[in-house]
Amino acid sequence: MGMTPQSLAALIPPDFTLGVATAAFQIEGAVAEDGRGPSGWDAFSQQEGHIVNGDRADIACDHYHRMPEDVELLHALGVDSYRFSLSWPRIQPDGRGQVNQAGIDFYDRLLDQLLERGISPMCTLYHWDTPLPLEQAGGWLNRETAYRLADFAGLAAEAFGDRVHRWVTINEPTTVALNGYALGIHAPGYPGLFEALPAAHHMILAHGLSIQALRSANVPGELGITNVYSPVVSARGGFANDLMVELFDILHNAMFSDPVLLGRYSDFNPLLTPFLHYLTDVSPEDLAIMSQPLDFYGFNYYFPTRIAPGSGPNTGPHAIPEGVPEHMLEDSPDLPFHITGWPQYDRTAFGWPIAPEYLAVALTEMANRYPGLPPVFITEGGASFPDVVVQDALTMEPHVADVNRINYLGDHLAAALNATAPGGPAESIDLRGYYVWTLMDNFEWAAGYSQRFGLVYVDFETQQRIPKSSYNWLQEITSLRAADTSSLRR
Ligand code: PNW
Questions:
Q1: Which own/partner pairs from 54-60 qualify as long-range (CB within 8 Å, at least 24 positions apart)?
Q2: Mean pLDDT of the chain
Q3: Is residue 277 part of a domain?
Q4: Residue 260 lies in a domain
Q5: CA of residue 300 to ligand 1 center, whole Å
Q6: Domain assignment of residue 297, yes or no
Q7: Cβ–ligand 1 contact at 380 (below 6 Å)
Q8: Residue 33 falls in the annotated catalytic set
Q9: pLDDT value of residue 153
Q10: Is 158 considered catalytic here?
Q11: In a domain, 366, yes or no
Q12: 401: buried, middle or exposed (CB in 10 Å: 19+, 13-18, 0-12)?
């Protein structure tokens, strides 16, 4: 607790990348403009009962129209890098064939404005907005979708390859498989439970095929993936509990990192076969495609997971955000495990435990499981809090004093840097950067606008942007680093 900007700036290596991240569907709005086609998320959020308060992303942060203003916010923040995602349905409305030039033009302008300001672009190809025609053809349950994403990767390489410094193929395939195809609380809303496993396989295959497409287009940028990692801890001792810890760890972590980093799916206790035998359609050729060498490995960390055996509805903090309507909880499927609370930790507004020491655990587990790990970027980390706008007594300007977010970010960044420093438990990891989720409050998926993760407050009525205290705090760190680098250069 209580990392000052000075103490943090002193801890951060000079060549370390500090960035902020966003995703197209969460910020852009303009969902029916300039030739953008609908995505599975548009359809899902139009159906009643899926999103808190019935919120929709039709306008979101109106970033599509306010992009230059938002780039100025990034510039004034002083971050080294900006991670954003391409809207697949804005660029290729049908998910195949015909390209929408207006979509290309938008990202052309974004990239140019970033580079003019010395901000390094990290571009995510797929952050959950599947073009609706592909979703209607089965989405990620259909192997075909993997080949369509690879085509999209080739198209993106041709249009933007000269200017993107780092490419992320897919953001958190875990969350898409689990929330979208197993629990049905994200698009496309299938509650298929373990029958969702082929969706996971097809996404990792899509990752590998996209890497091939980017490599064969000879893009100069570095290539990687973003997985989310949550250390899994047993709520109590006992065989059943250990087995369920193993199951959840496979479903949430290993299933997605093993094929990418080791070229195989995890061995597991044969007692878990009833749950995992749905993973079919896996060939040695697939595994070779999925495990091509990467230039970096991205992972997101938010919180650890505490597992108890059971068959009750999944009411824990992990999958079902607080504030989700009761009927969704009732509809939630029975699972052989459940995610339990952590009484010893404070929680974010989402109910997620605040446990920076588990980011060190995550890095240590990664280091032990994957000795040949390429350089690592933490591609997301952040927290939602009940931010309140007040008028500053002196300046009369609106202001958000989010000390809790400053503490969250400072403690997590320090935990990651200390764990990977020489002598730290994850010292073998070459940690290259940390991206704050997120630049500004936005459409937080099933939670709509009810959860604010931003460094910048967004008034969704007026679209006014109000930098929070956490924005000023990060700005102070980046300016201390800039001053220090120039003195080194002298
Ligand atoms: C990530 N979980 O999603 C996504 O990459 C972002 O788009 C999202 O806004 C952000 O984190 C905050 O939610 C997650 O339950 C969704 O473990 C769910 C979980 C973690 C991350």
A1: 54/448, 55/443, 55/448, 55/449, 55/450, 56/448, 57/25, 57/26, 57/29, 57/31, 57/443, 58/29, 58/31, 58/32, 59/29, 59/30, 59/460, 60/25, 60/26, 60/27, 60/28, 60/29, 60/442, 60/443
A2: 92
A3: no
A4: no
A5: 8
A6: yes
A7: yes
A8: no
A9: 99
A10: no
A11: yes
A12: middle
AA identity, residue 384:
S
Where in the sequence is the domain holding 154, given as residue range(s)? 5-230+291-305+345-489
CB 126 within 8 A of CB 134: no
Residue 444, annotated ligand binder?
yes
Q: Given the cut 0.95, state whether the ipTM is greater than it.
A: no
- The CATH code of the domain that includes 298 is 3.20.20.80
CB count within 10 Å of CB 315 equals 15
- Please identify which of the residues 172, 222, 246, 365 carries the catalytic annotation: 172
**161 or 320, which is more confident:** 161
Number of domains in the chain: 1
Per-residue pLDDT of 422-459, as tens digits, reads 999 999 999 999 999 999 999 999 999 999 999 999 99
